[in-house]
Design goal:
2 copies of one chain form a homodimer. Chain A has 224 residues and is of the alpha+beta class. Chain A is 45% helix and 25% strand. Chain A has helices at residues 3-13, 22-30, 114-123, 125-151, 154-169, 178-185, 189-201, 217-222; strands at residues 32-37, 42-45, 52-58, 60-66, 72-79, 83-84, 100-103, 107-113, 173-174, 205-208, 211-214. The first copy, chain A, has a 4-stranded antiparallel β-sheet. In chain A, helix 1 crosses helix 2 (22-30), helix 3 packs across helix 4 and helix 6 crosses helix 7 (189-201). The first copy, chain A, is elongated, with a radius of gyration of 20 Å.
Chain lengths: 224, 224
Amino acid sequence: MNKTELKQFLSERLSFWQNLTEQQKNMLVDNATERTFTQYSLIHNSLDKCLGIILLKSGQLRIYISSEDGREVTLYRLYGGDICTLSASCVMDAVSFEVLVSAEEICQAVVLSALAYRQLMQENVYVKAYTYELTVQHFADVMWSVEQVLFMGADKRLAIFLNDEIAKTGSNVIQLSHEQIAKYMGTAREVVSRMLKYFATEGIVTLSRREITVVDKKKLRSLM
Amino acid sequence: MNKTELKQFLSERLSFWQNLTEQQKNMLVDNATERTFTQYSLIHNSLDKCLGIILLKSGQLRIYISSEDGREVTLYRLYGGDICTLSASCVMDAVSFEVLVSAEEICQAVVLSALAYRQLMQENVYVKAYTYELTVQHFADVMWSVEQVLFMGADKRLAIFLNDEIAKTGSNVIQLSHEQIAKYMGTAREVVSRMLKYFATEGIVTLSRREITVVDKKKLRSLM
């Protein structure tokens, strides 16, 4: 995209655009870069450096936390059209915890630099209100994930996960390893394997190498 | 407090006060009420009705989530001088999850009605930015609690909890039942009892009826 196209793109995606001065608009355009993230790449680690605000055009981002021994819990996922604020956690003084962001699919995005965005948030209260509101919105997803992990039984959680996957892809076949599913669910691979075997004996799924096929959706949903 | 005192109180506690019109200031004063909450009372349940913004003068609030079978996880606590925004979750469209707020000690507070506050947030972007920023700040505490529950071993978590308690009260004696500690930690009573017995055999604490005395702080902290 050239500058004019980039400006057009930002004006359509950022609801505070009309509340910016002409100078602030140009500053934002000058600090926006087009980026492609390869699949499974770690694109933000709040300990490391601060990427900036990600305006996702296509693909899928996963926002998660990780323990010292490598256990992961997925907080939420973002898709084309979504905006990721936690990848710019350094610009929000109120965000003082560590999150990781990875690309789950190849992603096309426009990234607003953290430094420029921080300045804008300080200058313009509309930008500040917008950014914090969006962050709070995502926390509703975080709370949902946390409640799942904390409160639900593994059968219920796996049923919800499989159901979400087939709803998202439109196919009854899920091409994920038990390890990957365990990571997404924030549980152990053993738990997933055991539960999938149980689902297979119940006639809910059939299992083959790196493939899970849901054969009884009704029964699957009865577990949710 | 009379109206003048109430206005003075609000002007000192709300950083957006200077950005309100005279009319908005008066509206807020007219919709502020002094409240006393008795110890252990449930003061907000987002399913039920929406209390409003709580400006805590003294006492202690506990913000937590609860599972269908009654398991609780404490998200964070607020003390005198703090402001509770999640008790007005209905005024923030971005907050779509359920939280509970209870008074852990007798509390003195000023409550701003949800209806009036909602109007103010819509009218005044400074109020909106302030409220969402404060909410995001509290989420840093939420994430901390969640990571504790998800990732840490029970020994580490109990050590942190006991250390926090003695730091807060300034006494080595903790007058809480194992049941209460389990609720605060979001774990089972059995886990707490087992771990406390282990701490006792290690010479870290001594146990008596409804009392835990920390006798070796250094050893306790070595577990954290």
